[in-house]
Amino acid sequence: MSFSVNQPFLWMDSGIYRESPLEPLACDEALAAQMKREGAAPILHLWVYDKALYLGRRDAKLPRLEDALRHFGQQGFGCVLRSSGGACVPLDAGVLNLACLLPDTSISIDTFFRFVTELLSVGLRDYGAIEFGEVTGSYCAGEYDFSIRGKKIGGMAQRRTRFGSILQLCINVEDQPRGDWMEQFYALAGLDEMEKNKPIPFIDGTTVGSIDALTGNIVTVNDVKERLFAAIQAEWAIQPASFAVDAVALSESRVHLAERLGLFAFPAEALRKADWRLAAQPENGDAASRK
């Protein structure tokens, strides 16, 4: 480990979310707020959202974003403008999300990324060699994409709060046409009409994969959770813990994300309403990301 912590990581699984897609992000924010407590432990928080488009700040500039979100609402997708950086990522019941939270705001961005790449290399090694580096043409392409045999299966983004650091990542476990979804999303949202400030240069859905499709085996999200825990436990101090977040901190985190950071979130049923409109979004550069 390239940095030290004073106690074991807590392994917390908060399950599957289907209401507001902002909720798991608010949970991460509230867990980070609890890092101010004396002797706070680092946390690995696992969750799944079924199903939504997790947009990056750059996507807010897409000229026909509202049209694209309305279309995907008809297909059962909610949406959220997330607090960490990067561009749009599709989440569904076959994607495992993991947040690494540290009671440390001084750790460098690169050091934090390097630690989590090490954690993933160990935790996913049963599925083959994990490669790190940008997968050109993939959605939310970045330096800290991770892939199997050249196909992107996930990415990472960081966020700093007053009391802690959060690195959020997603892992495509069960196969879905996520690359196709993103090709359609960016076509509808007008990516090709933009001359500057594009959220991504271009999208090629064939660059995206999943663990089960790339290994040729039936692999579920629960399988990956179990293997991750077993592999990580063999290398680092970690212990299971019931998911628990302070109710006041959670309420404050919802307000902070929605009002202070200007994030929006809509479940699919809201996007399907005939009178739904997307309000203009304020500029905000509150994220550090290489997702």
Protein model, in words:
This protein has 291 residues and is an alpha+beta fold. The model is unreliable at 284-291 (pLDDT under 50). Helix 1 (23-33) crosses helix 7 and helix 3 crosses helix 6. Helix content is 30%, strand content 22%. The protein is built from 8 helices and 13 strands. It has helices spanning 23-33, 65-74, 109-123, 178-189, 211-215, 221-235, 247-260, 268-271, and strands at residues 9-17, 43-49, 52-55, 78-81, 89-91, 95-102, 131-132, 146-148, 151-160, 165-172, 238-240, 265-266, 288-289. Strands 1, 2, 6, 7, 8, 9, 10, 11 and 13 form a 9-stranded mixed sheet that branches. A 4-stranded mixed sheet has the order 5-3-4-12.
Please describe the topology of this protein.
Blueprint: E1 9-17, H1 23-33, E2 43-49, E3 52-55, H2 65-74, E4 78-81, E5 89-91, E6 95-102, H3 109-123, E7 131-132, E8 146-148, E9 151-160, E10 165-172, H4 178-189, H5 211-215, H6 221-235, E11 238-240, H7 247-260, E12 265-266, H8 268-271, E13 288-289
Parallel strand pairs: 1-2, 1-11, 3-4
Antiparallel strand pairs: 2-6, 3-5, 4-12, 6-10, 7-8, 8-9, 9-10, 9-13
Helix pairs in contact: 1-7, 2-4, 3-6
Give Rg in angstroms.
18 Å
Outline: globular
Give me the oligomer status: single chain
User: What count of helical segments does DSSP give?
Assistant: 8
- Round the mean pLDDT to the nearest integer and report it: 92
Which structural class matches the secondary elements?
Answer: alpha+beta
The residue fraction in helices comes out at: 25-40%
- Cα-to-Cα separation, first versus last residue: 21 Å
Listing every helix as H and every strand as E from the N terminus to the C terminus, the arrangement reads EHEEHEEEHEEEEHHHEHEHE
- Residue ranges: pLDDT <50 for 5 or more in a row? 284-291
Give the percentage of residues in beta strands: 15-25%
**Major β-sheet profile:** 9 strands, mixed
